[in-house]
Design goal:
By secondary structure, the chain is an alpha+beta fold. 28% of the residues lie in helices and 30% in strands. It folds into two domains: 207 residues, 2-Layer Sandwich (Murine Class I Major Histocompatibility Complex, H2-DB, Chain A, domain 1), CATH 3.30.500; 108 residues, Immunoglobulins (Immunoglobulin-like, Sandwich). Strands 4-3-2-1-5-6-7-8 form an eight-stranded antiparallel beta sheet. Keywords: Glycoprotein, Membrane, Signal, Transmembrane, Transmembrane helix.
């Protein structure tokens, strides 16, 4: 299963950035094949914090935060439950259509379709943006162009869907209105509901791990909030990017986040140079630094595979979001929803 990829760009700028950009993202994910999680999941995120969850096993939309429980009534959850139930079959059908398009009709493996729609709002400048993107098996499938109110098909298999959806101008106007108005209105409400939580800052706990003296060194930051973070390496006081692999920003089940960065370095180079991991969290002026010690058997801390696997299960079950590795303008690329009735495609997203 592909993971969430939230790349934070701009090393050293997290402490100086003053813009407060809020996001509302709704993920619809359907999967087929031999899976051990629900075949259809909806997750809503405000500022990357889950606020809503629905799956095809429970068939019930539920709040994921106390501020949603407190401020939103039963009618809202009933409506979201009906949207989830109605969308389940549409997305399930989309998997088969996508398999047909990609000549995978007889495939019994795992296949995933996904939609991500939502908006961004800068509460200082008032600038807003919106998006509606679809993907299949970890690759871009089709996306809505807000400027032209047309659909963009980056792959030949999506051209049929593009023509079908482009011909439904009423549905495209619906999406334009949702992205530019409804979504922004709801985002502002949610931010107000959860401001005490969403505006907080929580410092990270930073640790260094290494399986063996020849394996990469992992710098793991966890328990921080907000999700805007940079986990980087320095060599002798200078930014170091060579042989560095940046991990994913993932949610913890307590509402905070975690992120790792992996450095490949020889024991000899560690003896001759000073390496340190630097963690910066937006809104917190302090840098959190862990110095990589000179290699010694006593300094090798094994990573327990079971713990890592458990974290991935928590992400899959609690968040239920699978995002393809390619990055769109938003830094996301959802997994596919293929050819479905264009009216249903408009109704598939939560009417929030």
């Amino acid at each position: 299963m592909k993971g969430i990829i939230l790349l934070v760009l701009g090393i050293g700028l997290l402490h100086t950035t003053s813009a407060a950009i809020h996001t509302l993202k709704n993920f619809y994910t359907a999967a087929s094949g031999d899976i051990d999680f629900p075949e259809f999941i909806i997750v809503g995120l405000v500022d990357n914090t889950p606020y809503l969850y629905f799956d095809s096993n429970t068939k019930t939309a539920v709040p994921k935060t106390e501020w949603m429980k407190k401020n939103v009534g039963a009618d809202y959850w009933d409506s979201m439950t009906q949207i989830g139930i109605g969308s389940h079959q549409t997305f399930k059908n989309n998997i088969q259509v996508a398999k047909d398009r990609f000549n995978q009709s007889k495939s019994t493996g795992v296949h995933i379709v996904q939609m991500m729609c939502g908006c961004e709002w800068d509460d200082e400048t008032g600038v807003t943006e919106g998006f509606n993107q679809h993907g299949y098996d970890g690759e871009d499938f089709i996306a809505f162009d807000l400027k032209t109110t047309k659909w963009i098909a980056p792959t030949p298999q999506a051209v049929i869907t593009k023509h079908k959806w482009d011909s439904n101008t009423a549905n495209n106007e619906y999406w334009k209105n949702y992205i530019t108005q409804e979504c922004i209105d709801w985002l502002k409400k949610y931010v107000d509901y959860g401001k005490n939580t969403l505006m907080r800052t929580v410092p990270p706990s930073v640790s260094l791990f290494q399986k063996t003296p020849s394996s990469p060194v992992t710098c793991h930051a966890t328990g921080f909030y907000p999700s805007d973070v940079m986990v980087s390496w320095q060599k002798d006081g200078q930014d170091h990017h060579e042989d560095v692999e940046y991990g994913e920003t993932l949610p913890n089940d307590d509402g905070t986040f975690q992120k790792s960065s992996h450095l490949t370095v020889t024991p000899e180079d560690r003896k001759n140079s000073k390496y340190q991991c630097v963690v910066q969290v937006k809104g917190i002026k302090e840098d959190f630094i862990e110095v990589l010690p000179v290699p010694d058997a006593a300094n090798v801390v094994p990573i327990i595979g079971g713990v890592v696997a458990l974290l991935l299960v928590v992400v899959a079950v609690v968040v239920g979001v699978v995002i393809w590795k390619k990055r769109s303008k938003k830094g996301f690329v959802p997994a596919s929803t293929s050819d479905t009735d264009s009216e249903n495609s408009g109704k598939a997203a939560p009417q929030i």
